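Design job #97: recover the sequence.
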């Protein structure tokens, strides 16, 4: 399966890229990482499909990225040469960028150092990966669709991934899971043409509304493998819901300009049927691309012809610029698993009805993005009819995001002979409503029921917010070997429970983490607090060094503001910071004594003041006559 994916992607992109393929299965285990290291320099795109985890792409782990000069022979670091590539990790958890928590089938917790960060540390510009376990079939099809349909020349990678996700969302529940688990890190503008170039200007084409369309579906192709026939339509998709037969289907997208709203799509002709028999098509078992043995049971499928989805379906996607995209999905391939017969239709014709309206929703906002439960949500709605007066049916509702469940109907009224501008400010009392994400939906229709315009605005009910209430490290000046006690208190100052991870990191002078402590925060209630205590052993620290200790809590896909404290190891008598005790330090101590100022490094006789005696003792230590031992930590 993984090998087939790599070969398919090579066919798609080889006209634009020089392709270097690496199949783990074809390389001895000891040579897989060296082969990867040798192949990646000077490549613009690095794509992986297989098993993975937060810290690995199969045999490639975060430990393989730095150089190892002590190895025999020395191992160089992974180097991308002159490029800053796009990296696409189509495998479980390979986009778990921060603090992955173990959930079945995972048996470990992640941390700050992960495979995505390893690529960024070497100069990658963009990383796309999954934050959870991920179905292999969907990873394969999404990867091919990304390169074949969406990431075109001069299209930004952010736009391509967004368009891919928008397209996949309506294709089934497992696709919705795929959409939500994949993230983009880095520069979403990667791949864009400069706005003044001919390539960029050529993309700004005017849209003409389409009232009918004829579609010729490419002939399907069959690939036998291990007694199973895999069927695909070039440029098409495959049904991948759990337990469903892997039937290919085909879709087309049509752009409509602002002010045009598609009302219906009617199939007027379907022809060119061809038949076949003897195919053995399997059902989908959503294998997980995680480093473990895992599979899900195949559900029973009723007999007869599949898919039982009708001839076609369509949906309309609203674009941020006011235009819309009509997606028509056709099911030309029909299969009877009882007889192995096939019916395939090549030709489709559709009539598309749409309205052109000067009526538009010009404003839809809420007064805040987040509300405590029970607060009143204020909504501002603005309408405009720049054309002739007409009757408009205006409705507004609050719905729960994800389920579409209507929480409240805000307004429903008919605007008689409406023209010009209008505004409304409905209010919603959220008392007794569960916290979560909601959206306001406003719809304008004419008296025939045709949609003239529709807009939505999302908000959150329930405030997720926490802060570090206190953060201390004692002692702040330590002798090597002392134990530094770190205390952190985290408070929930929001209105919903918080679950997350508290992180305390000790950073050296170069900013590298030398120690890290983690603690679970579980269902911390509003106004509640939780304390954490850790002991940092300073036995391995360097004389005269200082360390920055930071603390923060990761929760709800965000981080609290970090708290910081600096601790340092003192060399008694070293007042100028050169890590040596010299006569210059004695002179500084004498100046401190004259001014009545205090510096713990100068208080070498440990009487909690700096005097001429301290200066004399430092002078003796500089001459090698005595040794300054420091004071007991209190």
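Job complete. Output follows.
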């Amino acid at each position: 399966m993984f090998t087939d994916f790599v070969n398919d992607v090579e066919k798609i992109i080889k006209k634009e890229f020089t392709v270097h393929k690496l199949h783990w299965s074809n390389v001895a285990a000891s040579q897989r990482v060296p082969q990867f290291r040798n192949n990646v320099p000077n490549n613009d795109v690095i794509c992986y499909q297989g098993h993975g985890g937060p810290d690995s792409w199969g045999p490639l782990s975060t430990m393989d990225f730095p150089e190892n000069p002590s190895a025999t022979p020395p191992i160089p670091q992974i180097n991308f040469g002159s490029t800053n590539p796009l990296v696409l990790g189509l495998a479980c958890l390979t986009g778990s960028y921060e603090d992955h928590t173990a959930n079945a089938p995972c048996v470990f917790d992640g941390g700050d150092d992960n495979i995505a960060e390893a690529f960024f540390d070497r100069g990658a510009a963009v990383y796309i990966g999954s934050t959870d376990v991920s179905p292999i079939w969907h990873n394969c099809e999404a990867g091919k669709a990304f390169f074949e349909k969406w990431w075109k020349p001069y299209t930004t990678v952010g736009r391509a991934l967004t368009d891919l996700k928008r397209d996949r969302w309506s294709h089934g529940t497992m696709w919705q899971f795929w959409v939500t688990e994949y993230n983009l890190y880095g520069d979403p503008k990667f791949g864009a043409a400069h706005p003044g170039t001919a390539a960029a200007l050529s993309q700004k084409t005017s849209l003409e509304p389409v009232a009918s369309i004829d579609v010729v579906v490419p002939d399907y192709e069959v690939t036998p493998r291990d007694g199973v026939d895999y069927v695909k339509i070039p440029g098409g998709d495959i049904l991948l819901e759990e337990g469903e037969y892997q039937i290919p289907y085909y879709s087309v997208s049509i752009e409509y300009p602002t002010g045009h709203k598609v009302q219906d799509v009617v199939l007027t002709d379907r022809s060119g049927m061809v038949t076949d028999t003897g195919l053995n098509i399997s059902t989908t078992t959503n294998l997980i691309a995680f480093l473990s043995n895992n599979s899900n049971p195949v559900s029973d499928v009723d007999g007869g012809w599949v898919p039982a989805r009708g001839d076609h379906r369509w949906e309309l996607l609203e674009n941020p610029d006011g235009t819309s995209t009509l997606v028509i999905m056709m099911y030309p391939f029909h299969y009877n698993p009882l007889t192995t017969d096939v019916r395939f239709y090549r030709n489709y014709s559709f009539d598309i009805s749409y309205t052109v309206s000067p009526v538009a929703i010009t404003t839809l906002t809420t007064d805040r993005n987040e509300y405590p439960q029970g607060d009143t949500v204020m909504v501002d709605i603005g309408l405009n009819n720049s054309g002739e007066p007409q009757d408009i049916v205006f409705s507004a509702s609050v719905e729960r995001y994800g389920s579409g469940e209507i929480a409240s109907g805000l307004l429903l009224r008919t605007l008689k002979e409406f023209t010009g501008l209008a505004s409304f400010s409905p209010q919603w009392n959220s008392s007794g409503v569960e916290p979560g994400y909601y959206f306001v939906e406003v719809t304008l229709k004419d008296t025939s029921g045709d949609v003239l315009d529709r807009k939505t605005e999302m908000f959150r009910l329930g405030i997720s917010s926490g802060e570090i209430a206190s953060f201390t490290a004692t002692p702040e000046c330590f002798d090597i070997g002392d134990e530094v006690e770190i205390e952190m208190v985290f408070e929930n100052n929001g209105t919903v429970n918080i679950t997350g991870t508290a992180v305390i990191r000790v950073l050296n002078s170069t900013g590298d983490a030398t120690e890290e402590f983690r603690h679970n925060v579980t269902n911390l209630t509003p106004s509640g607090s939780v304390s954490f205590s850790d002991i940092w052993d300073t036995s391995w620290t360097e004389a005269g060094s200082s360390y920055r200790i930071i603390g923060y809590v990761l929760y709800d896909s965000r981080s609290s503001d970090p708290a910081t404290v600096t601790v340092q190891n003192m060399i008694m008598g070293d007042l100028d910071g050169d890590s040596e005790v010299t006569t210059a330090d004695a002179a500084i101590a004498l100046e401190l004594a004259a001014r009545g100022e205090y510096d713990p490094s100068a208080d070498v006789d440990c009487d909690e003041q700096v005097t001429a005696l301290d200066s004399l003792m430092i002078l003796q230590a500089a001459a090698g006559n005595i040794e300054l031992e420091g004071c007991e930590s209190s």
